[in-house]
Amino acid sequence: MKLIKKILSFVVSPLKIFPFKKDKIVIQSTNPDNYNNNPKYLFEYLSRNKLNIYWFCQNSKIKKYLIKNNFNYISYSNPLKLIYVSLCAKVIIDAGSNYFDFLNLIPKSAKKIHIGHGAANKMVIHKFYKSKSEDFYYKKFDYINFPSRYTIKNVARKRYNLDKQKIIYLGYSKFEELKKPNIKKNNSKKIIFYTPTWRPYSYPLPILNLKNFDLKSFKNFLSKNNIIFVYSRHSINSNSDDDKFEDKKNIFFINSKKNVFFDMTKYLKKIDLLLNDCSSTSIETLFLNKPQINIFPDLKRYNLESGFITKYQENLTGPLIKDYNELKKIILQYMNKPSIYQKRYAKSIAIEKNRYYDLINVNSNKLSLKFIKSLL
Q1: How far apart are alpha carbons 340 and 308 in whole angstroms?
Q2: What's the rounded Cα separation, in Å, for the pair 15 and 357?
Q3: Least buried of 19, 164, 182, 318, by fewest C-beta within 10 Å?
Q4: Positions of E strands within the chain
Q5: How far is CA 374 from CA 36, 153, 285, 368, in A?
Q6: Distance CA 233, CA 140 (A)
Q7: Under a CB-based contact definition with an 8 Å cutoff, are residues 207 and 275 in contact?
Q8: What is the mean pLDDT of residues 226-235?
C-alpha cells in the first residue's frame, strides 16, 4: 500500500507546478470513521459562515449526512476533486497526531492548525512516543491551539517547549455546544457514563481490576437501582470484545466504529454521573455540574509510563475509589443527592475549570473564525 501511494504521489507531483489559486480549507476528524468533537463543530460553524471549507470524508454514512446538509466534502470516491482541492489548500485543520495530505499534494505554504480535542491533568505524548524532542508531536503543525493560559504555560511551554509563534489560544468549538441548555431525558433511569482514558500499554477495562469488583453483583446493583451503565473505550484501546462486560440490559458499550455520529459532548448532558480516571471528559462535565467519581487501579503504572501535569491526587474533582463496595455507596449517595458532591468539591471544581478551560465566557467559534480568516 505504501509503495502504491509513493508511485501515485510521483505520478501526480508535476501538478504542483501549476499556479492553482490557494483559497480552500480542509479539515478532518481524529478518526476517519467518526463525525464529532471539535472538528465537527468548527467545520459546521465555518461552513455556515461561508468559508470555503471541505471535510475529508472516508465513511459513507457521514458522506450522506454532508450531502443532505449541503456541506462541502472530499473523498476517495471522487479522486479528481480530491486532487484539485488538495492543490488549492490554504489551511489544513486537524485535532489528532497528523493532518490531511493526499499524495503529498498539500502546498508547503498551506498553514497546518492543530485545534486540539481535550485538556486535563495528564501528560502522555512524549513518553508514549519515546521521542527526545518534546516538540516532535506538534512539529509538523504551524499552529497549536490550547484552551487556557494554564495549559499554555504548563504544557505548551514547560512540557513541550513549543515556540511562542506556534501557540494559539482559541478554545474548543465543542464548548459552545456545552453552553446550550441540557437535554431532558425521556426515561426515568439514571445514567452512569464511564470514560477511561487511553493507556500506552495493554490493559483491560480498568473497573474490572477494582478491588473486590464482581461483575454479577454489579449488574444486580444496577438493575435494583434502575441505573444504566454506559462506557466507552478510547480508539487506541478499543478492543471491547476482551472486556466481556456489556450485557445490553443495564451495561452498554459505545462502539464508535458502528456509531459514527456518537457525540460525546451532547451525551454528557444526558448523564447523571461520570465515572472517570483522567480523561478530558472530566473537565467538560465540570461545566455541566454533574457528579464525578474516579477509579484508577493502574495509577502507579500510568504515572510511570505516561504521567500528569501535577500530582494526580493534588486537586481531584471527585473521590478516588479503591474498593467496589465503596464505589456502590458513593454512586447512590451522589445520584440521590448531587449537592453533597457539589459542596464537597466546589473549590477543586473552580480551580480545574480555570486551569483547563478559562475561555468559557468567550465564543471559541468566533475566535477561530477570525484567526482562520487572517490566514486566507
Answers
A1: 28
A2: 43
A3: 19
A4: 24-27, 53-56, 73-74, 89-94, 111-114, 143-145, 167-168, 190-194, 227-232, 251-254, 273-276, 292-295, 320-321
A5: 25, 25, 33, 10
A6: 27
A7: yes
A8: 89
Across residues 34-52, what is the average pLDDT? 97
Q: Which residue has the cell 484539485?
A: 84
Sheet with strand 73-74: strands edge to edge: 73-74, 53-56, 24-27, 89-94, 111-114, 143-145, 167-168
CATH node for 179-356: 3.40.50.12580
Tell the CATH topology of 2-177+362-375.
Rossmann fold (3.40.50)
Sequence length of the chain is 376
Q: For 121-133, write each residue's pLDDT tens digit.
A: 997 554 545 554 4
How far is the C-alpha of 71 from the C-alpha of 53, rounded, in Å?
A: 9
Answer whether 206's CB lies under 8 Å from 197's CB: no
Question: pLDDT tens across 245-264, in order?
Answer: 889 999 999 988 889 999 99
Q: For residue 374, what is its C-alpha cell?
A: 487572517
Question: What Cα–Cα distance (Å) separates residue 74 from each residue in 18, 27, 321?
Answer: 21, 10, 47
